[in-house]
Amino acid sequence: MSRSDAPTGRIGAGGVLTIDLDAIAANWKLLAGRLAVGTTCGAVVKADAYGLGLAPVARALHAAGCRTFFVALSDEGLTLRGILPDAEICVFNGVEAAYARDMAAARLTPVLNHLGQIADWSTAAGAEPLAAPLSAMLHVDTGMTRLGLSEAEVKTLAGDPGRLKGIRLTGIMSHLSCADQPGHAMNGDQRSRFDAVRAQLAGLAAGRASLANSSGMFLGADYHYDLVRPGAALYGVAPQPGSPNPMGQVVALKGKIVQTRRIDTPCSVGYGATHRAEHGRLIATVAVGYADGFLRSLSGAASAHVGQTIVRVVGRVSMDLITVDVTDVPEQDVRPGAFVDLIGPRHTIDDAAREAGTIAYEILTAFGPRFARHYTGTGA
Ligand SMILES: *Cc1c(COP(=O)(O)O)cnc(C)c1O
């Protein structure tokens, strides 16, 4: 595959999003390499692989050696089953009675979050004409108060394991609420609570234990257990905010210049007239806007590059356009049809997130369908 950064694809697109599948594979191997022998590295590919494309990303991760995948929705699981016929596919949101048979037929593993889901999956197991029981993971809440069995439900289940009739548990998991803050007391509290619940449910032989997401993996080996569930770090997000990012960058975004304007008389730029351009400035209008996921909160805040030169987004981000002060760039580099580097190795998704007042997860998942998408690397 071409490693050139020359934009290809739909000529008429306002932006070109390049996704480096080799970087995703390398990030998975880097994370897997941090684990003790016997600990499995899964991959979270929910929300269309964090907006980067489920099929190419899942194939690249599978080729890198990943065999356990996590999605949020059963629909995502069904789609992924069509892409990876043999992988283990776990569905965080669990099961709904109406879709249980489809999930069983596709050999999906729901993560059962409450007693109702346990009942629904057990019922499906009873109705299945299969000889083998249906697999499932169990989610226990240890302090997030979002998904997972409550303390009371754990007690009920421990006292009545018959509720799991027809179900073969393949794991027990929980989720950390403050893993990106290594000093936060919640981390240790949740780990202790997880150990206590596992002891309480020891009679169920629940299988592999799993606690860590990307950031959780960096809290230390005692957070790894048997199976880890990184998502964001695979896609280049810094797992420890404020520390050097060990992950390789995966995405690059270029925006196409539609028009440039040399300012003769000082004037305002964009909606709300929030930016004043002085005499002599050169403003480039670029065909990327908030409809493409270039968040409006980046108004007057984002930086970008043309060649080696740092440039700034000035004025409001509008639906289809941004305005960039390119005064410091050689004029031949900023003609209509030329590109501005909005996201890249020198201005990462974490940088953009900081400027937008959000997290890199939101930058990634917001990228819209109008961009020409260009995959590089194995499997592109
Ligand atoms: C999304 C998610 C993950 C992955 O989290 P990252 O921070 O992206 O690594 C892991 N576990 C659960 C339960 C999740 O919802």
What key phrases describe this protein's structure?
binds pyridoxal-5'-phosphate, seven-stranded parallel β-sheet, 27% helix, TIM Barrel, elongated, 2 domains, Lyase, Ornithine Decarboxylase, Chain A, domain 1, 23% strand, disordered N terminus, 11 helices, 380 residues
What's the quick description here?
This protein is of the alpha/beta class and about 375 residues long. It contains 11 helices and 19 strands. The strands form 4 sheets. Strands 1, 11, 14, 15, 16, 17, 18 and 19 form an 8-stranded mixed beta sheet that branches. A 7-stranded parallel beta sheet has the order 3-4-5-6-7-8-9.
Can you describe what's shown?
- The protein is of the alpha/beta class.
- Helix 1 (21-32) packs across helix 3.
- The strands form 4 sheets. Strands 1, 11, 14, 15, 16, 17, 18 and 19 form an 8-stranded mixed beta sheet that branches. The chain has a 7-stranded parallel beta sheet with strand order 3-4-5-6-7-8-9.
- The chain has 2 domains: 3-14 and 248-376, Lyase, Ornithine Decarboxylase, Chain A, domain 1 (Beta Barrel), CATH 2.40.37; 21-235, Alanine racemase (TIM Barrel, Alpha-Beta Barrel).
- The chain has helices at 21-32, 46-50, 54-64, 74-83, 100-105, 115-127, 151-159, 185-200, 214-217, 349-356, 360-366; strands spanning 15-20, 40-41, 43-44, 68-71, 88-91, 109-112, 134-139, 167-173, 208-210, 227-228, 251-262, 267-269, 275-277, 282-286, 303-306, 309-314, 322-325, 339-343, 372-376.
- Residues 1-6 have low confidence and may be disordered.
- Strand 4, helix 4 and strand 5 (88-91) form a beta-alpha-beta unit.
